[in-house]
Amino acid sequence: MHKYFFIFLTLLTHSLTAQECDTEITQKNWKYRVNLSTFISQKEGIDINPNKIYYDFMRMPIGVPFNYIDFIQIKEYKYKEIENNQLLYPAYEAYAKMKQDAFRKNIHINIRSSYRNLRTQQIVFNKHGASRAEKPGYSEHHLLTTIDIRYAGENTKLFLWLLNHAFDYGFVPTYYFRIEKNIRQESWHWRYVGEEAAQWFRCAWRNEINNEINRLSHTFGKI
Ligand SMILES: [Zn+2]
Predict the structure, then answer these.
(1) Gene3D superfamilies per the record (predicted)?
(2) Left (φ > 0), alpha (ψ -120 to 50) or beta: where does 106 sit?
(3) What domains can be seen in the chain, in order of their start residue?
């Protein structure tokens, strides 16, 4: 009975979402998430109880030790220094390209903060509290794929540009469209999840994204 109901639900989901919103991606990237998790765990010494992992509304795990980066192998898990910060190589490449393309349109993207180790996150957590910072060990900033962008407040032209274009480079604003009300909306916080997964997020949030783009376009026009 349950099995057939699940199949029915799956079919229903598929018929309701467009092709580009393929739910298969949650399965497809599992292996890569686990690989990355191993890397981060070794680097950080973080051992998280799976029962305590926070899942988002798409049933995707958030924070350490999971990520959705597609098509990266363990040997490529090198990170690179950039703007006094650090990013995993695939995230760095995507960031560098996005920054360059934005610059051509006179949009300036700079990193305020990316990688934080356990100790740094503890300092942030102590300073800002649980409503404004994740517990040490659970921050996406441990992943080496997440950036806080300077001057990307929710009423800025920069945020409008990011909403229009950053998904194409594989970045998503993971803390902006979360439904949980106790978590602060952060328009400057963007996490690299890979182009494919970013497309999936864009589909899932398309109404919310369009509302924000419309709101900001009144002030800044079409960019
Ligand atoms: Zn952040």
Answers:
(1) 3.30.1380.10
(2) left
(3) 2-220 (3.30.1380.10)
Separation of 146 CA from ligand 1 center, angstroms?
7
Query: Which two tokens mark 115?
Result: 């990688």
**Residue partners of 12: CB distance under 8 A and separation at least 6:** none
CA of 116 to the centre of ligand 1 (A): 10
Residues composing the chain:
223
Global ipTM? 0.99
pLDDT of 55-107, one tens digit each? Answer: 655 555 555 545 556 545 555 677 899 999 999 888 999 999 999 999 999 99
Angle at the Cα of 172 from the Cα atoms of 123 and 137, rounded to 5 degrees: 30
Residue 215 Cα, ligand 1 centroid: separation in angstroms? Answer: 23
Side-chain-facing half-sphere of 218: CA atoms under 13 Å: 6
* CA 18–ligand 1 middle distance (angstroms): 30
